[in-house]
# Entry
Amino acid sequence: MKEPGPAAAPPARGTFAFSEADEERRRGVRRMKTTATGLLIGVAVVYVLATCARQAWGAGGWAGYVAAAAEAGMVGALADWFAVTALFRRPLGLPIPHTAIIPTKKDQLGVSLGEFVGENFLSADVVRARLHALGIGGRLGAWLAEPEHADRVTAEAATALRGALTVLRDADVQAVVGEAITRRAEAAEIAPGIGKTLERVVADGGHRRAVDLVCAKAHDWLVTHGDSVVDAVQGGAPGWTPRFVDRKVGDRVYKELLRFVTEMRDMPGHPARGAVDRFLADFAADLQSDTETRARVERLKSEVLARGEVQDVIASVWTAVRSMIISAAEDERSELRLRVRSSLMSLGARLATDARLQAKVEGWIEGALVYVVTTYRAEITSLITDTVAAWDAEHTSRKIEAHIGRDLQFIRINGTVVGALAGLLIYSVSRALGG
# Structure
């Protein structure tokens, strides 16, 4: 079994490998070189034979015409061979000035190419004119108005959103969210806002349902836990009083308390309810205007925010939001994706027909691209310059020759043919004038 040969060495740093298409092009260049060289040899042979026929074999005047044409054809072929070869290497290895242009002038060509691109493709006027001619607004609107296109954009956006949320570290985001919420809560004074809200609630009577609920719950609790109230009263009595007296006092307190709560529950106009209304109204006013009350609320707010349990709840907000968004993004029939799809189609339909909106969108796009082009033009052109400068000179020369060498060999062929025709014409004119 044949042993495998050594692995091919990777291309040198700053070079690019030849593809199969490049190798095919190089074979085509070699075939054309053979054809052009064969034509040069052919006209040389014709020249020798024609010269011998005229001088040694006594041929007629036609031999002079053939020799002149062949001689000029050789000159044209050799001149074009020199010109084509000088682009990529030194002809015959001789250090002739202004030869091997591509290998020696590669960096200058890269700079010139970068400047050409910058001046002719990356100018603000060119970008604006090209974008304006494209009519991006109308095209984009018509494209988005198609349901399948809106579905595609929605799916791509959902994928990107899921990817972004997956990459983000929960701990980092939770810390940022927690800090942002805490900082915003600490910076804003909440007492005046609470006071205004409470004032509106009291004015509208919205607090009365809460009072009804408290009274109902208090009544039910007293009915269920009457013994607890009696025991509490007995436990607070002096030690020297008889127990039966303590018991009667406890029963009396319990009955009066139950009667009071029952009346308060059943009588909307009970004086205690009015006292609650006045208390809440006064408290709402103090929250807005009383300095001491406001300061106490702020201290309470800071104490609540500093508690670990509250910070855990704030941090868990991100986890809940993240799970909700990912779930909605993955579900094709979720409300989020349906709304996004509907919004895209609506935007597309409007953009396709509304000339003012088209102009506005195109203005945004043009402005953004012009800003990028004018701001980063030097970086973009330096990408071309630096890339060309990093290429290996010999490898670059072979690469370019593979792409354009076949056409250049046609120049050699054309030079041979045109040279022969020119030589024949000159010889004919000179013979005519001499005759």
The mean pLDDT is 83. The chain is about 85% helix and 0% strand.
